[in-house]
Amino acid sequence: MAETVRAVSASCAFWTVARHELLLLWRDRSLPIAVALLLALICGGLYNGLLRVDERDELLVALLREQDSRVDNLAAQLRTAEADKLDVYANPTNPSSLLASGAGLRYAIMPSAPLAPLTLGQSDLLPSYFRISGRSEVNFVYDSDIENPWHLSAGHFDAAYVAVYLLPLLILALSYNLLSAERERGTLRMLLAQPAPLAVVVLAKVAVRGLALLTPVAVLPLAVALLARSASDFWNVAASGLLWSTSACVYGLFWIAVAVMVNALGKSSAFNAIVLAGVWVAVVLVAPVTLSLAVEVIHPAPSRIEMVQKLHKLHEAAMRHYADLDRTDYETLRDPGPRNGKVYIQPTTLRYFHIQREVSEMMRPWMDDFEATLDRRQQFVETYRFLSPAATTFEAMSDLAGTNLGRHRHFQRLASDYYRQRLSYVFPMILSGTAVSEADLRDMPRFVWTEERSGHGIWRRATSLAELLLLTVALCVFSVWRLSNSTRSLGR
Amino acid sequence: MIAVVAKRDFIGFVRDGRFSWVGGLALVLLLSSIAVGWRHHSELAQERRAAQLEGYETWVAQGRKNPHSAAHLGMFVFKPETTLALFDPGLEPYVGATVWLEAHEQSDLKFRPARDATGLRRFGDLSAAFVLQMIGPLVVLLIGFDAFAGEREQGTLRQLSSLGVPPHRLLWGKATAVAAGVATLLVPTVVLLLAAVFASGDLGDSLARLAWLLLGYCLYLGTFLFSTLAVSAAAPNSRVALIVLLAAWIVATVVIPRAASELSRIQYPTPTAFAFDSAVADGLEHARRQALEENFHVKRSQDVPIEETGRALQIDDHAAYLVFDKHYGALWDVFARQQRAQETIGLLSPLVALRGLSTGMAGTDLAHQRDFAAAAERHRRLIQDMMSDDRIVHAGAEGYNYQADAELWRKVPPFDYASPPSGWALARCWPNLVVLAAGFVLSLLSAVASVRRLRPL
Q: Which of A52, A93, A439, B174 has the least C-beta neighbours within 10 A?
């Protein structure tokens, strides 16, 4: 009976304090200003995210349109090839035209994921399309799109940036003096005189702040993603979006828990502000870059210089292997189109494709090692991500938005497979000098994008969220213990 | 009197633990980032030198072949790291330092290191410049926020006033104390950088660059120092001073640089590689066709007489040079306009100006990248012209089937690039220095004005 009475009185106290706190924060304008600022920042981040992703989507559509136009043009030339007087360098029936960097160029395209505008992640560093021709694999897989390095170094202003960098600051600005201000004003003693435990009072105070600040972060990006981006699989997108919002909320809760814990130490407002600013610097600025530095020291990235040296040597060796083909057959230079299903392939053309294929095959083991090292680096980050909740949250958000390294690595593997399929299809035709028909062109392998199996990614993100939640709960438990055991000292 | 105030304040923030914690952490980060940067820099510099030498040897040893075929092998060249890149790697991780000099095509700088990084790269790079730019101001404001406001709360400001201590002496005393705290970060940094400069053997120019860097960082941290004292003198209490200063620090170092970067990109959009390549390809096609028609009165390259193919190749190359100059020049100009727009928006934050100066003096900014790319392209053209000249002179009726030997490859000089001198760098980033100096003077004036209106109660 006594416990029920205590629970009811605690519940009443909770609602009373929460109402009172809301009124105070509203009247001194700190809450409306913080919420308006947060809304403006989120809207700015979302606008910028949508702008960047729309630009990229338009580019991908333009690429496909340009590719289709080239294929249609080549098909039309192939239909009339027998009748025309052909230029040997632009002979459409020449099988090398299927791999040439003009007519034979194909794009491997990775579409933007529905949540991409929320977290632009590494989308500016990692290309969303590859230009695949007859050139060796190493020539296209490490390509990048053009971008001002200042922009690459500054990073994006998107919803994830607002959630990871700025949301904690707003939480801390509203919560750094939860109890210390009461004590400095002399009102804490009055609060302690109430029948409700101090932990309930603090809970009511942070609930108001948390609800006001976390609701926009949880709802607005999700709503924009669902409304602005058409997705074929609505429920899957909604589930990912919900997980994105949950990540933001759990991260926000972590910062609320940090603020409560520091307040529970019973120090002055200035002390709280210094410590909380220090924690923010440590978690958001220092820990991720220190972890990044640790990765570079413990698992250094494979040397690109070494790769370039190897590539140059292999290229030179391949040139030697096919030195006998390094000649132009001027007699056949003005050769017209196909004769009896065969075309004459210039020795230099044959040599070019031999060299590119050889370089590609010889570089493959090095590239595999390179990918394995990158995997080890990412694994290291996954293992120690708990050291920075900011990094954990950002990684989770990038993962869900499909702008992380993992999805790009999957894309790169698909593009490499596609390159090899094309080569297997066309190279025998080049070797045998088989004239290409329109049917050959239409039957050429096409690049098909398939998403990586999402089960593993969702499990990984759920685990990191659980870790962060666990840390938050531990901070809360410590704070409750501290508040319960030092009520008297706090009131002084 | 100034020395007495400075000593008392310095001992005060050392004793209350603030300086030990924040300054100690900053110093550890600073020293470790310099140590790691130094190691990385030494390895990279050596690796690049060795690779370039080996690449040249491969070029020379390529055996008999057609000169144009040799031009297709080309060579890779590497941007040498300046010594001060270990302090501020700047844009290096986002540009790439390798250019392939091959026939027909002007190549971009390849292989951005940031592309091989983990997702954590988005949080920045731990370099000494990062620590001084981000954590340095935080150290200043955490040790200085209560310089006046704290004295007022404790009642000691009233005592000092009653003793007849002039407010401006108080200001200089407190400024000296905070500056002494900052010096504990700057002095070891400068000593280590001097050691690195002496170890590299590149004394004259690096020392001049280091001096300008030091001036820039002093102005930057000085701006925060006097702003902190101005706010501390004007604020009703130390809590308000701290909150205002923390908010200003976050806006200046975290929000404005990123927002300025995004806004400059919206104002001057970067062309996509697709649009850029298409424009270059169209330009090349037109220029080549025109050159062929004007010089040989034919429409197709295979209609050029065999003995003229060497000259045709050279004419074709020269027509392409103009197209590359036009399009690459326009691209670099877009980058430069974006940077200027960024710096204009960034007038609100001294960090944007400092980054321009710091990367400029460390040799890791856009201007240095552009200079290297231009030098690499000049070398590519030299190789192309030498190969074509030889073919024009010796090929005759053999055309493409003529073969040259190692004597020709040896005539091509190795690529030898040296970073431009400090004066060249300063000529490009003096506006940043002016902005920093203006910010410093403004903060100093605001501190003097605040102290004049100082209320002891």
A: A439
Residue whose tokens read 């340095």: B136
pLDDT digits (tens, 9 = 90+) for A35-68: 998 999 999 999 999 999 999 999 999 999 999 9
Q: Are A313 and B59 in contact (CB under 8 A)?
A: no
Q: Which residue has the tokens 């923390």?
A: B246
- Residues of chain B with Cβ-Cβ distance to A358 below 8 Å are none
> Could you tell me the CA-to-CA distances from B221 to B136, B325, B351 in Å, in that order?
7, 41, 10
CA distance B409 to A198: 84
Residue of B nearest to A407 (CA): B119
Chain B, 64 to 123: residues with Cβ < 8 Å from chain A are 65-66, 69, 73, 75-76, 78, 90-91, 93-96, 98, 108, 110-123
**Which of B32, B250, B261 is opposite residue A154, by nearest beta carbon?**
B261
Instruction: To the nearest 10°, report the CA torsion of A13, A19, A24, A29.
Output: 150
In angstroms, the CA B34 to CA B197 distance is 13
* H or E stretch covering A474: helix A454-485
Looking at residue B71, its amino acid is: A
Give me B339's structure tokens: 């940077």
Kindly list the domain boundaries of chain A, sorted by start residue: 2-491
Q: What residues of chain A score a pLDDT lower than 70?
A: 1-10, 82-90, 230-232, 332-339, 454-458, 487-492
Residue B64 three-state SS: coil
What span, in angstroms and rounded, lies between the C-alpha atoms of A307 and A374?
15
Give this prediction's pTM. 0.89
Which of A292, A203, A250, A237 lies closest to B130 in space, CA to CA?
A292
DSSP A134-193: SS-GGGTTT------HHHHHH---SHHHIIIIIHHHHHHHHHTTTTHHHHHHT-HHHHHT
Q: In DSSP terms, which residues pair with A461 in a beta bridge?
A: none
Q: Please report where in the chains the tokens 């560093």 appear, as a residue.
A: A125
Residue B154 vs residues A156, B88, B159, B167: alpha-carbon distances, Å:
45, 42, 10, 17
Q: Is A407 in a helix, a strand, or coil?
A: helix
